[in-house]
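User: For my dataset I need records formatted as: sequence, then structure tokens, nothing else. Please produce one.
Assistant:
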Amino acid sequence: MKFTKESLRLYAITDRNWLGNRSMAEEVEKALKAGITFLQIREKNITDAEYTTQATELCQLCHRYGVPFVVDDNIDVAIASGADGVHVGQKDIIDKDVRALIGKDRILGISANSVELAIAAEKAGADYIGVGSIELSPTKGESKVLTLDYVKEICNSVSIPVVAIGGINEHNIPKLRGVGVAGIAVISAIFGKEDVSQATQTLRKLVDETL
């Protein structure tokens, strides 16, 4: 799957806690049709076998729409499911060469909330960096909120694309204009909405106007 900076424009992250009884695959397909450009599956408290099954289904779905797909935090599941890559946190790159484990052709995203960590992520072989939180996040809870000036400083400290994450929704996307991010990552702003298609269309329009 071809990956470019533009692939990161509207980056959706799954979280079944927002879906109730709705089908993850059906809601993801609605988001794909409505304009997401990247998908990350994020699952907690399930077995690797369950994670692989779910990731494989979503990976195949994303590829039908030409959208890159990565797995959160689990390298084994990313490889087993045929995912395009993996997104990991800072703790996952301590004493571990993730780039070597996934190979040079898979996408590697790494989270960072400081200039120092962003530079370290780029040196570790990251293709892009997830930076936040931008606002208090309903998904992440008590996450560290960064000023927009500092996010801009992080963007300027690396040569790879930066995705803003954390508490981003249709109300605050415009404030990211001129900060330097390549895209925005959302969870509840898409999957927490009753009408995923309409939510995605609204966000995509705002992101295109802002970035």
